[in-house]
Amino acid sequence: MVEDWRQRWQQGRIGFHREAVHPALERHWPGLGVDEGAKVLVPLCGKSLDMRWLADRGHPVLGIELAEEAIEQFLAEGAGEVSRYHHAHFAVSRQGNVELWCGDFFHLHIDEAAEIGAFYDRAALIALPEAARQRYAFHLAQLLPPGARGLLITLTRAPGDSGGPPYEVTADEVHERFSPNFEVTHLEDGEREPGSGFRESIWKLVRRGPGR
Ligand SMILES: C[S@@+](CC[C@H](N)C(=O)[O-])C[C@H]1O[C@@H](n2cnc3c(N)ncnc32)[C@H](O)[C@@H]1O
């Protein structure tokens, strides 16, 4: 799995990467009620431009990505000095308000995730096969304090198409995996894309706390 992703980056097979900020982020982030200046966790971040958008809005960003190639491309395409250090299982690079941790998201420990107030998942959950998705939902919940919130973007595939990645994640699956630890609100369904047959759904998740 790890090797597959690294190979994809090495060979430039990154059709998932968007050359523009995701419109659902621009549309829904302002209404989520995220605290000003809250640090945003971006799991499985690739070299997403959405991280710059969040940073430009005053959020420190913590992106977690396996592939060194993705991180180096993000830094090369950005402006500003890069500082680097090592922390636990991760090689860390920082450029402006964006910190990229190179390593496995599942190795990120709650102590290292201190001060995270929000998250953004576009093409992270849906990049994982079924067995890893339950682990992902649980791990994300462990890293977030009560009240932390974020956007989740899932997709369904054309009827009869069970390929992946990206894997189909239905509304039932979102509720099943996240409701035990999050308040789950469905915000929007996109149009089905004519070529791929993919259709995105946008969700707001708020980490429940004791008594919520
Ligand atoms: C489908 S891409 C999406 C990237 C980004 N979120 C975007 O919207 O462009 C999934 C990314 O997750 C990375 N990845 C896969 N498994 C991972 C893991 N366990 N920990 C960290 N990164 C991982 C892959 O290298 C790949 O860049």
Structural account:
By secondary structure, this protein is an alpha/beta fold. It has a single domain, classed as 3-Layer(aba) Sandwich (Rossmann fold). 26% of the residues lie in helices and 28% in strands. It is built from six helices and nine strands; from the N terminus they run H-H-E-H-E-H-E-E-E-E-H-E-H-E-E. Strands 3-4-5-2-1-6-7-9-8 form a nine-stranded mixed sheet, with helices on both faces. The protein is globular. The relative contact order is 0.15. Bound molecules: S-adenosylmethionine (SAM). The site of S-adenosylmethionine has 19 residues, from strand 2.
Question: What's the gist of this structure?
Answer:
The protein is of the alpha/beta class and 212 residues long.
Secondary structure elements and pairings:
Elements (H helix, E strand, L loop, with lengths): L1 H10 L11 H6 L10 E5 L6 H7 L4 E5 L2 H10 L4 E6 L2 E6 L2 E5 L13 E7 L7 H14 L5 E8 L14 H8 L3 E8 L9 E9 L5
Parallel strand pairs: 1-2, 1-6, 2-5, 6-7
Antiparallel strand pairs: 3-4, 4-5, 7-9, 8-9
The site of S-adenosylmethionine has 19 residues, from strand 2.
Q: What is the multimeric organization of the chains shown?
A: single chain
**Shape, per Cα inertia axes:** globular
Report how far apart the termini are. 37 Å
Largest sheet: 9 strands, mixed
The counted number of beta strands is 9
Reported by name, the CATH topology is Rossmann fold
- Total count of helical runs of at least 4 residues: 6
> Roughly what fraction of the amino acids lie in strands?
25-35%
